[in-house]
UniProtKB/TrEMBL annotation:
<feature type="signal peptide">
    <location>
        <begin position="1"/>
        <end position="24"/>
    </location>
</feature>
<protein>
    <submittedName>
        <fullName>CHAP domain-containing protein</fullName>
    </submittedName>
</protein>
<feature type="domain" description="Peptidase C51">
    <location>
        <begin position="44"/>
        <end position="164"/>
    </location>
</feature>
<dbReference type="InterPro" id="IPR007921">
    <property type="entry name" value="CHAP_dom"/>
</dbReference>
<keyword id="KW-0732">Signal</keyword>
<dbReference type="InterPro" id="IPR038765">
    <property type="entry name" value="Papain-like_cys_pep_sf"/>
</dbReference>
<dbReference type="Pfam" id="PF05257">
    <property type="entry name" value="CHAP"/>
</dbReference>
Amino acid sequence: MQTFLRPILLSLALLAPLAAPAQAERAQQGLLALFAPAQKAGPDRAARAELKAAVKVALANPPRGRIWCVPFARAVTGVEIRGNAKTWWDQAKGRYPRGAEPRVGAVMAFAASRAMPKGHVAVVSKVIDDRTVLVDQANWERNRITQDTLVIDVSAKGDWSQVRVANAGGTLGRVNPVKGFIYN
């Protein structure tokens, strides 16, 4: 039944911007609840607990001034890459495994775009299914750390090269280019 309902619910989620913010949030929570049983058990659960502990430390020790995605991703994953987010994918080559499969604790490396000229990095916090994940990230919402933000793969090939990320109101935003995932 979940497979049958998925396209319908994703269509509804894409129409959520037309709904009131409270309705959009309830729709997103309903979508997440439907797919929650599909989460992989075992190693993902342990990796998620470890990641959430690192995020808790980051939340308890915010930097002075602006909160940025790069230092946050580095702190919670241990991936020791510096520089703008748009450079992470290339810098990881030969240093860290890279791929197109989301895994808990992996860094999702967004490519630079007109809307994000410096790129963006986020950390996969939960794999819902092969085209839906949750991420923890910094500065997607200005100067904030957000947890378990919905991200949906909208690429034609299902290769995570294009995604839509939930906004503060729970609606799905623009299509964003992604280079892939960096594993530690």
